[in-house]
């Protein structure tokens, strides 16, 4: 690994007979490309965020619909349970109406 690092360091060092103006110009071009890449990255990031807003809005709306559906289902279940209990009470009351409670005596026919 150190061999590769030393080789890259040697490649990156300017040659001793290189023109300082060319070295300076190459670093300037490298900086411009770096700034251009950074700017493009930020533009892509902003476009991604802008495009993400409708997706998040749609997902939020879907979650809201699921929540409302669950709420309505729970309410319908409670209503059905109450109706069932009322029907049971009504059938119990109907059967109780046909029974006459009280005491009775058996009379002798003699």
UniProtKB/TrEMBL annotation:
So which domain of life are we looking at? Answer: Bacteria
Which residues does the annotated region (Disordered) include?
80-110
Q: Where does the sequence pass through the membrane?
A: 20-53
Compositionally biased spans, kind Basic and acidic residues: 89-110
Task: Kindly state which keywords UniProt assigns to this record, in alphabetical order.
Answer: Membrane, Transmembrane, Transmembrane helix
Q: What is this protein called?
A: Uncharacterized protein
Look up and give the organism this protein is from: Pseudidiomarina atlantica
